Structure formats: structure tokens, C-alpha cells
Fold:
Amino acid sequence: FQTNVVDAFQPQNKYGMYDMLGNAWEWVSSEFRDPSSPPSKEERYVLRGGSYLDSVDGKFNHRVRVTTRMGNTPDSGSDNMTFRCAKDKPKTKTEL
Structure:
């Protein structure tokens, strides 16, 4: 298993965006809370999506979906976890 380069596959949405999930777990700034477990004393943040180690049907580790979430501590690291750089789209004259 390995990650793929950006745009290795055709966009699968009407926005023309590539690789929105499945290459690596994406760190987000939301604190992770598991409602089925007692509160954790460790600080944990959400990882979402899934990685190249997972599968669509969940037979390998986790099920890769946009709704898949798990938590991990800020000092964790792995070759299948990353973050996404993003910025707001500039407003057009009609949106101002």
C-alpha cells in the first residue's frame, strides 16, 4: 500500500476537487469526544476520512468515508496521518 500523487484519479465531484479522503487521515482542529466511552483525560483531536491502509468496506482497519472519525493525541505521528492546508475563497464583487 502507498499514497498517490494529487490528481492520480479523476475528480469524483462536481467541484473538480481531488483526493478529499482515503490517502491519509486528516487532522482537524476539533477536539475528539467519543460518546460511547467515558471522557478521556488525554487531549485528543479528530482524525477524519481514512487512509491508504483502510478500505471502502472496512475489511482493512477502518471504513473510508467522509463521516469516519477517530481521535488521537497531538503528539502522535504516522505516515498515514496529515493535515490539509486551506484558505477562504476571495469574495467576488457581487458577494461584497
